[in-house]
Amino acid sequence: MKMRTNEFKRALKAGDEQIGLWISLANNFAAEVVASAGYDWALIDMEHSPNDYFSVLAQLQTFAAYSTTAIVRAEWNDPVAVKRLLDLGAPGLLFPMIQTVEEAERAVAATRYPPKGIRGVSGSTRATMFGRAKDYIAQVENETAVLLQIESRAAVERAEEIAAVDGVDGIFFGPGDIAADIGKVGNPMDPAVWELIEPAAKALIAKGVPVGTLVLDPTFAAKLLKDGFTFVACGTDTAILSKGADALLASVKGAKA
Questions:
Q1: Domain-located, residue 78
Q2: What is the CATH number of the domain that holds 165?
Q3: What pTM, to 2 d.p., does this model score?
Q4: DSSP for 96-163, written as a single string
Q5: What's the domain range around 241?
Q6: Whose CB has fewer CB within 10 Å in the chain, the N or C terminal residue?
Q7: Domain tally for the chain?
Q8: Mean of the pLDDT values across residues 64-80?
Q9: Share of the chain above pLDDT 90, in %
Q10: Which band of pLDDT confidence, cut at 50, 70 and 90, is reported for residue 256?
Q11: C-alpha–C-alpha distance, residues 199 and 158, integer Å
């Protein structure tokens, strides 16, 4: 047996746009509701949701039956967490709050076996198909997407240096935390946030670096893709549910008024 091809990582390298969805409900049944919708990628979030390793595992198993590639955002740039998530078979990781080149190097090292990195070795895991994927050691580096999240003014200013670290597959701008960092907390769509992000993104795009983000405005998400962003998440499962519930209730109340 051979390990599964990471179509999302290949698409990033080819510059093919990838439309994604944020997954925060921490439940495999909820994940299955959206898994067949046709998104190119989904982000299973451990940083700002109640996900644990078992819930992440169940969701990875769910998405494996569909064409959507499930990426996991680790809680932190922690090599122990990274090791466990990779052993669970996560085809890619998003590292939150990367501020420096050194932090970027540590993130990549956590995904690599020695001598390139510090990842511990375990043979019989879900990632290796329990020892059946004989090419795993040789191929895992080629089939694992390493994405780094830039979330402050200082990090945005270092984006090109961070992106140049060997092994980085893409840079993800986090407008929510960037907004907070520049005094616009709670306003990720404030023009000042995007006046900071967009020049840095354009510089990376010009160098062939895949750039991504999460926005909840579908029109703005489409604009970013047209502008050269490669991987854009255009919504979250929690927001879809809450907004849909609110709209349905308002519709019924309005109809009987």
A1: yes
A2: 3.20.20.60
A3: 0.97
A4: S---SHHHHHHHHHHTS-TTT--PPP-SSSTTTTTTT-TTHHHHHHHH-EEEEEE-SHHHHHTHHHHH
A5: 7-256
A6: C
A7: 1
A8: 98
A9: 98
A10: confident
A11: 12
